[in-house]
Amino acid sequence: MTVVMKFGGTSVADPDAIDRLIAIVTRETPRDRGPRIGNAPIVVVSALAKVTDALVAVCRYAEDGEVEIAAQALRALLDRHLTVATAVTTDSRSSLVTSVRAEFDELISLVHALAVLREVSPRSQDAVLAVGELVSSRIVAAALVDRGIPSVWVDARAVLVTDAEHTAAAPDMIATCERARARVAPEHAAGRVVVLGGFIGSTASGVTTTLGRGGSDYSAAIVGACLGVDEIQIWTDVNGMLTADPRVVSHPRLVPRLSFAEASELAFFGAKVLHPSTILPAVHKNIPVRILNSRRPENPGTLITAEGRPDAAGLTALACKRDVTVVDITSTRMLMAHGFLRRLFEVFERFRTPVDVVTTSEVSVSVTVDDTRRLDDILEGLRHFAEVSSEREMAIICAVGENLRSDPAVFARAVTALDRVPLRLVSQAASRRNITFVLRDADVSEAMMRLHDEFFGGD
């Protein structure tokens, strides 16, 4: 079996985490030249834990002209990476340290120039943030070689081709698959573990881009789809997908198996284990995705497949998205007029703000957004043709389950469980795979616990 293994930031956070990663990869790596040759895993890694956040802060310092503060932050990051690199290598140490220093020397020069200009464009930010994955993937590849595992580092920017939408680039799957077959497949066929950084790519002309936060999952799925692997594994710091956010519900249960569609809904509405875009390439190629815990590799994790659990009863899981704003648009004169909804959503499109939930009545449309950076502009645009109001400090709870389509009693049970919880909006998608509740953020804990007790039992 050929797998792509994606390791998140906590799975490469320090030397101990990288040692665990190596043990996991070793289990999947052929130890001889026998019939398993060519089945070594393909490894995709995130930046070390908290490094991307630190690099975002460096960009902020540069914009503020804080040259010395930015330089101090970069020196601290360099020291951390050198400490990790030194701890996990011996024979490969000298060349690895040279590579790490070279990446940071280039980064320090770039940030200094940005700080002098006091301007960080999206293109420049991508160049800064990419260093986290470039360095972590080099460290992992060198550490594998040092342990006697045939491995090779491949610059992900030479494989993943994207558009020029910096900080949130979209992959060009045709060009990416051509490069993956040319640059990754031969190394893999030779029995070597190919190590790439996630999250990063480049335009067709070679300019560095990023897929957006959480994009390492997406990178792994793209590479897996291009190479037609048997399974895509997401190694993280939890046992798999849970029935609820453990920060809200104290003792959620493991979901052993769910469908691609259910996983998409949960990821979109706040489940942090999986990036919302991850499974899109997997769905297209029908490749199973498994979520596993790098600290407890013996656990079976969660398997995500096309069919999920056909015999599942009730709900599969709950997700919640906090810090949401509800926008109410009312126009008795124009609501039912031809083109009104198009005009309404064009305002959100103009200010590049996605909408999560939409409900309509005879005289109003209500939508939710979680990106409020352009909210004032959006409200002003809507006021040209409607009355508008907004309400902050709201939240979305999404109850997901394939069984919703066949058992109408599930919807009734969910609504009844929230008796006397003030609900702002209630929506069920056309797929009838989820129920969405919009409510005050202050009521989320109570509502989540009630739903969890109803469908999954108490603590």
Number of strands: 17
Overall pLDDT confidence: 90
| CATH fold-type name of the largest domain | Carbamate kinase
Rg estimate, integer Å: 24 Å
Structure described in brief:
The protein is an alpha/beta fold. It is 41% helix and 20% strand. The protein is globular and about 70 Å long.
Topology:
Elements: E1 3-7, H1 15-28, E2 42-45, H2 51-63, H3 67-88, H4 93-117, H5 122-146, E3 151-153, E4 161-162, H6 173-189, E5 193-197, E6 200-203, E7 208-210, H7 215-227, E8 231-236, E9 257-259, H8 260-268, H9 279-285, E10 289-293, E11 302-305, E12 317-330, H10 340-350, E13 358-360, E14 364-369, H11 375-382, E15 387-400, H12 409-417, E16 423-428, E17 434-440, H13 444-456
Parallel strand pairs: 1-2, 1-8, 2-5, 3-5, 4-6, 8-10, 9-11
Antiparallel strand pairs: 6-7, 10-11, 12-14, 12-15, 13-14, 15-17, 16-17
